[in-house]
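Spend some time on this chain, tokens included, and walk me through the fold:

. . .
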Amino acid sequence: MVIRENFEKKLEELKGKIKEMGEMSIASLEEAFDALKAQDVEIALKVMEEDNDIDNLESEINHFAIWLMAKEQPVARDLRVVIGVIKISSEIERVADFAVNIAKATIKIGKATSRLELTHLEKMKEISVEMLKKAIQSFIEEDIVLAKEISKLEDEVDDYYLETYKKLTAYLSEHPEETNQLVQLLFINRYLERTADHITNMAESTGYLIKGKIYDFNS
């Protein structure tokens, strides 16, 4: 019984690290978008510097999970939890990478007159943050209903992605002199769409943990 309690504590510790990593990635997304709106290079550089902390935490989580598998040799649901931790930490790291990409795009845009008003990028960012919060909560609480809600939010991001793409490409055809900024905004549009994809992958991992079967929330 004591052995089981110790193992459960280790699993809760792993989940706590996932929550911490998720919160760090949310902060990176928020900061990256603040930099974009303000066209602030210093904030953008800060996002890039802080990405190392997220990478280090992912490495720590993976080593912890592998050690736990080797030491405890978990099976069935316990094994799914540990595998889920490894998969979800990888998805969170990718989200943080997209925040860095947004920061880099911001630097490339520089101080050109902002065309952000042509886009739905801010709304896409807000939905992505909501998705990530729900994904972390659903994993920690093992809530399949919450996990399934994420796919509906992803559909909203996809819709905004297509609308933004159409608006930016139409504007670009009439204003080729603004190619640099418009191309960067198109990249950011893609980064946010991919961010939503990776968060949906997290929800699918949670579904696997709870039900023991593969989910495809994109279908």
In short: The longest helix spans residues 2-38. The radius of gyration is 19 Å.
